[in-house]
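Objective 1b. Sequence-to-structure analysis of Kelch motif protein.
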Amino acid sequence: MKVQTLLLLSSFGFFSCSRSSNNNNGDWLRRSDFNGNSRIGAVAFTLNNLGYVATGFDGSNYLNDVWYYDPNLDYWTSVDTLPSIGRALGVAFATSKFGYVGLGFNGTDNGTGTYFPTDFFKFDPSSNNWTPIPSPKLTNNGGVKTAVAFGIGAPYNIGGVLGGIDGNDNYHKEFYVWKEDSGGWVTEPFPGPKWAGAASWVYQNKGYVVTGTGDNQLNVSDFWFYDPSRPLGHRWSDSLRRIFGITDQSYDAGYRVQRTNAVAFTGVSNGIPKAYVTLGSNGPSQTDCWEYDFATDQWSVKSSFPGAGRVGAIAMTLNIKDPTTNTLVPHGYIGLGGQSLQNNGAGTGVFYSDITEFLPDLPFNPDDYNNQ
């Protein structure tokens, strides 16, 4: 793993044969390190079963490079850079056809007059090229960092961008929807809180948003999902249980899911679709991993990530063929990030380049991470 230790002076493979545990709470398998610079605040999206990673901050520069990961080859390849200034803490999403990257924070305005770029770009995998698209009409007439985004594929082919923090440290709750078929943005109502630093995933054409901080700078317990099949004004629902122990039932007594700047992905455990949240911070940086069961609307703890706790990491869900069923099964991959995020959108300390796959049905073996 490339580990880069820096101090900012600004304001701001294969499975091992032995198994040392009889605990089937999941294993973390180290994959090929990211080929670009170690970084924090990058963005990621999945398209045609390749995991794309773009932008971020490496301790010296805000970046605009773009790479993709092929899980079948366990290999990274660079593609055309984002045709704009570098940035960190932006957003990314993908539909069935294209990937999208935009917003974020840049510590030097590079002549643009703003530290918060509002531009957005579409990536065409058939040509490996980026083209600009219209920017969402942000209510503060500027950009935001640490918004959360998700993309929903066919038949909807939309992307949603929610919340974030602007240049005056104001939190937002506006929800912007990119309509790929019409080529424009619309604003839809979001009845929840002002929100930043959340994590998201997509399951059965619904976008789920969880964790993060509110405008009181405290970690939120909200858990919402967006269903584009519902009538306008009724697409968001908070009918899911909140992410800390609020009942007298034993199932949520130990919930510690609350955090900010975490990552999320989906997977399958014992043949049942699940979602996962890990990393992020709740005071110190976290390594614990939580599994969400769609059927029971409950969380359970899994094996902790064996690497360093971190914030500003990335997550990708990629499909891997199960040799026993010959079907594609979603697997989660996480990586990059750094020790801490600063108010200026950058970071201090150590930055990471490791990439790790989570295997929820295997017993934990630290050698699968440490010896790769």
